[in-house]
């Protein structure tokens, strides 16, 4: 009999991929499935980015790269960070990662152990809690409340800190809710964290440019007092429609940087060379296709919110960021996960049940509007037929 360590029995998963697999199987069986489950832009990667990768291959960039990434790629991240946040970082603080999740894995692994506590947003990206539990640490949910626009409360967050707290995970704009935490609330949180200098902070800013209605993302990089314990997660997947390229970056404080570099050496060695050249082209090249995509998301956001609010038993606050709607479905009388499953099976609409995003997710489902307006309207029509039946 094989004996694995208990930690591997504590690993969760991201159910959006399970729903994607089931939706794909149903489509292969001839069903007409509208997938509003997966968080993936339906746009293609811009052509100049693809060409940069092809050119890199033709130019012979076939070998290993440094564990922390090509210096040219890290310098591109420095330029992009300055442009979006007004903050200058050193390329020696930047790690190029194979996606966004490795940054979560590394940061939580550094601070999680039995007896420790890690605060994370709930509802939130499910990998936060999964990795916290994997390390043996205790996950402490920070409530993201509908009445607060799914932004975190600085007061409520600070009240959850104990002597065992080692890491605080933040995410704005947020998955799954689309919530954007206002600058004033972030300032209040940072001021309160001055009393807890030994707590590290992981700020997941992967949706940084995806804000609407005049909202602007407030990067934690803009607060010098916490820079020596701040880890910032970002990447190419969402902004440039590069989910399958597995390209992310993170910015680390000096005292943690070599630890994550060594983890990279031991775990994934390096990020592939052609993708890094594509990443440079994404940052330095024309951004018109990004702007086109963001305008489309904004239009779709309005369409999906209006449609959801017209359905019986459903209400939906207007998301201020990312590309997700997170409607309240309590008045339908359906448990959230059961509703999501049945919508896929009977109506051909893939969504994700709120409990897949945390212990506070009951009563909600997540829909991604990274799909066409036509498909969103068709999905709303199917949901209405199902709910009124």
TrEMBL record:
Q: What cofactor requirement does the entry state? A: pyridoxal 5'-phosphate
Entry's EC annotation = 2.6.1.1
GO molecular function list: L-aspartate:2-oxoglutarate aminotransferase activity; pyridoxal phosphate binding
Q: Residue limits of the Aminotransferase class I/classII large domain? A: 32-382
What's in the keyword line of the UniProt record? Aminotransferase, Pyridoxal phosphate, Transferase
Name the UniProt record assigns to this protein: aspartate transaminase
- InterPro entries in UniProt: Aminotransferase_I/II_large, AspAT/PAT-like, PyrdxlP-dep_Trfase, PyrdxlP-dep_Trfase_major, PyrdxlP-dep_Trfase_small
Record's superkingdom?
Bacteria
Give the family this protein belongs to, as stated in its UniProt record. Belongs to the class-I pyridoxal-phosphate-dependent aminotransferase family.
Q: Name one GO biological process term.
A: amino acid metabolic process
Q: Which reaction does it catalyse?
A: L-aspartate + 2-oxoglutarate = oxaloacetate + L-glutamate
Protein's UniProt keywords contain Signal? no
């Amino acid at each position: 009999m094989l004996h694995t360590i208990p930690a591997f029995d504590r690993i969760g998963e991201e159910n959006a991929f399970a729903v994607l697999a089931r939706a794909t199987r149903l489509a292969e069986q001839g069903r007409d499935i509208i997938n509003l489950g997966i968080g993936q832009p339906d746009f293609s990667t811009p052509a100049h980015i693809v060409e940069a990768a092809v050119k890199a291959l033709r130019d012979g960039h076939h070998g290993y790269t440094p564990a922390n990434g090509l210096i040219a790629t890290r310098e591109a991240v420095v330029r992009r960070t300055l442009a979006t946040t007004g903050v200058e970082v050193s390329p020696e603080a930047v790690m190029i990662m194979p996606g966004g999740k490795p940054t979560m894995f590394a940061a939580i692994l550094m601070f999680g152990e039995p007896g420790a506590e890690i605060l994370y947003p709930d509802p939130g990206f499910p990998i936060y809690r999964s990795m916290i539990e994997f390390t043996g640490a205790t996950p402490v949910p920070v409530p993201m409340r509908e009445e607060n626009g799914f932004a975190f409360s600085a007061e409520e967050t600070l009240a959850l800190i104990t002597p065992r707290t080692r890491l605080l995970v933040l995410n704005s704009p947020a998955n799954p809710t689309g919530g954007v935490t206002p600058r004033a609330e972030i300032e209040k949180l940072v001021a309160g964290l001055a009393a807890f200098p030994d707590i590290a902070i992981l700020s997941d800013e992967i949706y940084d440019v995806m804000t609407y209605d005049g909202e602007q993302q407030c990067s934690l990089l803009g607060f010098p007092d916490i820079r020596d314990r701040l880890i910032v997660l970002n990447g190419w997947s969402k902004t440039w429609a590069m989910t399958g390229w597995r390209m992310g970056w993170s910015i680390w404080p000096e005292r943690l940087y070599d630890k994550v570099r060594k983890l990279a050496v031991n775990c994934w060695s390096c990020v592939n060379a052609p993708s890094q050249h594509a990443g440079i082209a994404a940052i330095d090249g024309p951004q018109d296709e990004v702007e086109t995509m963001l305008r489309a998301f904004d239009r779709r956001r309005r369409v999906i919110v209006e449609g959801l609010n017209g359905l019986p038993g459903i209400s939906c606050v207007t998301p201020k960021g990312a590309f997700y709607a997170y409607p309240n479905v309590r008045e339908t009388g359906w448990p959230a996960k059961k509703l999501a499953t049945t919508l896929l099976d009977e109506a051909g609409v893939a969504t994700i049940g709120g409990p897949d995003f945390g212990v506070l997710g009951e009563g909600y489902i997540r829909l991604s509007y990274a799909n066409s307006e036509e498909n969103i309207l068709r999905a709303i029509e199917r949901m209405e037929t199902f709910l009124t039946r």
